[in-house]
């Protein structure tokens, strides 16, 4: 009894032991975010940086622009279209990785237990290489004089190279390639837990293949689909390297646009406001997505 | 033989894999299961029961032979087009669907209107006494309740044949007994043909109209429980169904002379030469010395209503007698007794 009590009192103060880690975590995680949020409501410095004067200009410039000569206010279509493009490309990336990731994960999960580790290992190999290098490798494949176009021309299928590089298609190919493992791994984990006998039960009860997929398999592996989608969508939305290298200067995504404000644009408050907005968009869409997708199937 | 046939399996053979890994799960099995019958496939683990059931369900295609359902050849028809449903050993309930949705799944897939599905689900849930659990998820139910849901789900589409693969093996003894009579009741009430698989001979004897005994991919005997118990065709069946004493002997006229030198009266059916006699323990009666085969009591085991006597015969062989405890209790270890066996109770098997 006595020993038990001693143990409990030790347990009650046990969290103190992790206090240094907690402090570090709190400062490292929320400190920079706090700075960004604060910068978004300060006045723009002359060349860069901020002046410590409260100002709504950063946030104002997210949606509107002011003519430099007559000061008339107009809607900032360009900003909005960059935002919208990013969301569209990220959703498309998520869908593409799902379309390729599901059969891949299924394939791995249905291999004999011995060889699964090998296939999973193959999936994780790209993580070992620098993102920039992988992106340049993609570039080497799809550029006009690249492997793909050369092969197609040599095969006589096309006479002129297809312009893929510096288009949305290039950005999509790059992002889908980079984020595919993030979709495959959670899907694999879900399928691995899936009881394959349920498929037979479905067939036995008159379901077609498609009905078994939609009515049995997909609903049961849904947690994996949700996890994979989140893991792909969020980094896609903030992607910087891939759209920069494969999309060229014109096809910007939010990440590039934000970088522009801190660099050439010399408008830190606008960059900070855009960053904060991106964070909010991600948080809200996460909330909505998990709400909607966990509003469960029983009672259709 | 005017009863219509539900399942007619003709010369079914099934070989899994090929080359040196090949496993012959079914040799050459022919079986006719009548409409409305409670038919049990009985045999030890690995004898091919599940394989035969999966061929009927459509999950496996036989390597040879054909399967007919109500006269129609269904050998190559996929499972989702066969009016046959299965109660899986593992239940295989859909974890993301409520009890009612599980039970309604088949009808929904058949394209029945929602109203009809709801009515059928309510009716079948009442049949298995689960009305109050319609909105639960399977994992919120006990093993016995899940078993009933699996049953209800397979019954709801009113299949021509219901296949049950050792459905009670995961339940504890008391629940198993309950479910046995429950299954029997459901089969009588619905009139659906049941093909039931078990390795438990007692289960087979108490539930079935007819039993097919299998061993190593072959069907050894098909008959009523009474037939199979009283007239096993060979030593394997006799041994597998209930406890049996085997005595070796040689036919001499209308009798069989056994190792002790005693000659037993038996009913012969043309057998000659060396034979094996199969005698159920409850057919062995004991009297205090006198005529008959002399034996000494080696061991007694009290089993409640019955008492088991392990008897040692003159030639050193043993025979078990099962005697109602009420009428017994007079013999002790070491006593010398005399054994009498009714001629009609002795099965003469070829050695
Ligand atoms: N998918 C399979 N692949 C290879 N061999 C199998 C397969 N299924 C069953 N078998 C083999 O076939 C034989 C019969 O199995 P099964 O029909 O499951 O028997 P039971 O149900 O009577 O226990 C066994 O030897 C088993 O190992
Ligand atoms: Mg089996």
What report would you give on this structure?
- The complex is a heterodimer of chains A (300) and B (351).
- Chain A is mainly α and 300 residues long.
- Chain A has two domains: 3-73, no CATH class; 77-296, MetI-like fold (Orthogonal Bundle), CATH 1.10.3720.10.
- Helices cover 69% and strands 5% of the residues of chain A.
- Chain A has 14 helices and four strands.
- A two-stranded antiparallel sheet of chain A has the order 1-2.
- The longest helix of chain A has 33 residues, at 77-109.
- Chain A is globular.
- The model of chain A is unreliable at 1-6 (pLDDT under 50).
- Chain B has 351 residues and is an alpha+beta fold.
- Chain B folds into two domains: 5-236, Rossmann fold (3-Layer(aba) Sandwich); 243-350, Beta Barrel (OB fold (Dihydrolipoamide Acetyltransferase, E2P)), CATH 2.40.50.
- Chain B has helices at residues 49-57, 99-109, 114-127, 143-155, 173-190, 201-207, 225-230, 235-240, and strands at 5-16, 23-34, 38-42, 64-69, 72-73, 84-87, 161-165, 193-198, 210-215, 218-223, 245-252, 255-258, 263-265, 274-279, 284-287, 293-303, 306-313, 318-324, 336-341, 346-350.
- In chain B, helix 5 links the parallel strand 7 (161-165) and strand 8.
- The model of chain B has no long low-confidence stretch (mean pLDDT 92).
- Bound molecules: adenosine-5'-diphosphate and magnesium ion.
* Cα radius of gyration of chain B in angstroms: 24 Å
Helix/strand-derived class of chain A? mainly alpha
Number of strands of chain B: 20
Q: Tell me roughly what share of residues is in helical segments of chain A.
A: 55-70%
How far is it from the N-terminal to the C-terminal residue of chain A, by CA? 54 Å
Oligomer: heterodimer
Roughly what fraction of the amino acids of chain B lie in strands?
Answer: 35-45%
Output the CATH class name of the largest domain in chain B.
Answer: Alpha Beta
Number of domains of chain B: 2
Tell me how many strands of chain A there are: 4
What is bound: which ligands?
adenosine-5'-diphosphate, magnesium ion
CATH class of the largest domain in chain A: Mainly Alpha
CATH superfamily of the largest domain in chain B: P-loop containing nucleotide triphosphate hydrolases
Task: Describe the global form of chain B.
Answer: elongated
């Amino acid at each position: 009894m006595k020993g038990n009590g001693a143990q409990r009192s030790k347990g009650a103060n046990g969290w103190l032991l992790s206090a240094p880690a907690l402090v570090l975590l709190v400062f490292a995680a929320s400190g920079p975010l706090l700075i960004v949020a604060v910068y978004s409501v300060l006045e723009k410095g002359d060349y860069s940086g901020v002046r410590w004067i409260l100002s709504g200009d950063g946030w104002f410039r997210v949606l509107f622009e002011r003519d430099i000569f007559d000061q008339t206010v107009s809607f900032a279509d360009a900003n909005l279209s960059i935002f919208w493009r990013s969301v569209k490309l990220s959703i498309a990336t998520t869908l593409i990785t799902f379309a390729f990731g599901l059969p891949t994960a299924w394939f791995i999960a249905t291999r004999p237990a011995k060889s699964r580790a090998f296939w999973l290992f193959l999936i994780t190999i790209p993580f070992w290489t620098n993102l920039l290098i992988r992106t340049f490798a993609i570039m080497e494949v799809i550029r006009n004089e690249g492997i793909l176009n050369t092969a197609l021309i040599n095969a006589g299928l096309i006479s002129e190279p297809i312009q893929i590089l510096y288009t949305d298609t290039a950005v999509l190919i790059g992002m889908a390639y980079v984020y595919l493992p993030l979709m495959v791994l959670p899907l694999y984990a879900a399928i691995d837990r899936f009881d394959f006998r349920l498929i037979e039960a479905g067939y036995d009860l008159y379901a077609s293949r498609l009905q078994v997929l939609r009515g049995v398999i997909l609903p049961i592996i849904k947690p994996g689909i949700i996890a994979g989608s989140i893991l792909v969508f969020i980094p896609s939305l903030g992607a910087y390297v891939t759209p920069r290298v494969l999309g060229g200067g014109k096809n910007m995504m939010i990440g590039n646009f934000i970088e522009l404000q801190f660099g050439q644009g010399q408008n830190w408050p606008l960059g900070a406001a855009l960053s904060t907005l991106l964070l909010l968009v991600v948080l809200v869409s996460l909330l909505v997505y998990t709400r909607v997708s966990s509003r469960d199937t029983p009672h259709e | 033989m005017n009863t219509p046939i539900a399942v007619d399996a003709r010369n079914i053979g099934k070989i899994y894999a090929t080359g040196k890994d090949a496993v012959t799960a079914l040799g050459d099995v022919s079986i006719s299961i009548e409409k409305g019958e409670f038919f049990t496939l009985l045999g030890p683990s690995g004898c091919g029961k599940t394989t035969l059931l999966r061929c009927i369900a459509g999950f496996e295609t036989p390597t040879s032979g054909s399967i007919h359902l109500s006269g129609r050849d269904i050998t190559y028809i996929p499972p989702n087009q066969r009016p046959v449903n299965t109660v899986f050993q593992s239940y295989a309930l859909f974890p993301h669907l409520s009890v009612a949705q599980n039970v309604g799944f088949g009808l929904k897939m058949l394209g029945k209107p929602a109203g009809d599905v709801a009515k059928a689900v309510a009716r079948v849930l009442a049949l298995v006494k689960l009305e109050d659990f319609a909105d639960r998820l399977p994992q919120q139910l006990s093993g016995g309740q899940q078993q009933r849901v699996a049953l209800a789900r397979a019954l709801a589409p009113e299949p021509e044949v219901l296949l049950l693969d050792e459905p009670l093996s995961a339940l504890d003894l008391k629940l198993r007994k309950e479910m046995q009579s429950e299954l029997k009741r459901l089969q009588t009430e619905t009139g659906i043909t049941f093909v039931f698989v078990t390795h438990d001979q007692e289960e087979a004897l108490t539930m079935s109209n007819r039993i097919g005994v299998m061993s190593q991919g072959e069907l050894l005997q098909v008959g009523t429980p009474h037939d199979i118990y009283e007239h096993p065709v060979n030593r394997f069946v006799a041994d597998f169904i209930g406890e049996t004493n085997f005595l070796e002997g040689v036919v001499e006229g209308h009798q069989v002379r056994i190792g002790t030198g005693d000659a037993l009266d038996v009913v012969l059916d043309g057998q000659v030469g060396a034979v094996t006699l199969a005698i159920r323990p409850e057919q062995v009666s004991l009297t205090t010395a006198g005529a008959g085969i002399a034996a000494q009591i080696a061991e007694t085991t009290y089993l409640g209503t019955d008492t088991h006597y392990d008897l040692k015969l003159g030639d050193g062989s043993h025979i078990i007698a099962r005697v109602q405890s009420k009428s017994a209790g007079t013999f002790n270890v070491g006593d010398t007794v005399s054994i009498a066996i009714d001629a009609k109770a002795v099965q003469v098997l070829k050695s």
